[in-house]
Amino acid sequence: MIENYGTCRIGAETADEYPGTCPFYKKHLHRHCGNYAPSIKAEKRKLIYVASPLRGNYEKNMAKARQYCKYVANRGHIPYAPHLLFTQFMDDTIPEERAAGIAMGKEMLKRCDELWVFGEVISEGMASEIELAKELGIPIRSISTEEVQYGQD
Length: 153
What we know:
Elements: E1 2-5, E2 8-11, H1 23-27, E3 47-51, H2 58-74, E4 78-80, H3 82-85, H4 95-109, E5 114-118, H5 124-136, E6 140-143, H6 145-150
């Protein structure tokens, strides 16, 4: 029998030993097990613009961007990462396509509720997104790689 304890679903047989929490989470540096189910709130979910580097180590940065989106979704919000979307049909190495992707991303930033800046490195593209968010009065939140890795808020 599976029951919900907070945002984790664990077997009822562990409920007495670990009341209200997931034993995996406590033992594994605040990482959730496969039974993790983020709580979905009834209120309006925020659309969060995910800003993180793309250039440099492309594959590693794309993997991090996916991780950042999951971080946002696990907090009950809707992630929007233009560099994950537009690179599916545009080539970031072609200057015209890169410029078009950045312009479309900035247009979408205007529709987002918040800008979350991930990691310790601020790229040129991220700096321009931060500047636009400041001009528009969009709240900006900086989130470290460590915070994402260990699921802290």
